[in-house]
Amino acid sequence: MHLTIRLSEILKERGMTQKQLSELTGIRPAAISEICNNQRTSINREHIEKIAECLGIQDVRDIIRLEK
């Protein structure tokens, strides 16, 4: 099993760019890119909180999925 971050899909659904999310959250563009592309081996909890707040996401399961 592995964790998958759905941030790229969510941004597409909302018509938002990674750059816009970076500007709104204060998270470095490189970090946003790595999260979107599932290239991170660890995820900063504060980053997920900022992203969820910015996107109006109430349930972290909308961003993070555990897949087989």
From TrEMBL:
<protein>
    <submittedName>
        <fullName>XRE family transcriptional regulator</fullName>
    </submittedName>
</protein>
<dbReference type="Pfam" id="PF13443">
    <property type="entry name" value="HTH_26"/>
</dbReference>
<dbReference type="InterPro" id="IPR001387">
    <property type="entry name" value="Cro/C1-type_HTH"/>
</dbReference>
<dbReference type="InterPro" id="IPR010982">
    <property type="entry name" value="Lambda_DNA-bd_dom_sf"/>
</dbReference>
<dbReference type="GO" id="GO:0003677">
    <property type="term" value="F:DNA binding"/>
</dbReference>
<feature type="domain" description="HTH cro/C1-type">
    <location>
        <begin position="7"/>
        <end position="63"/>
    </location>
</feature>
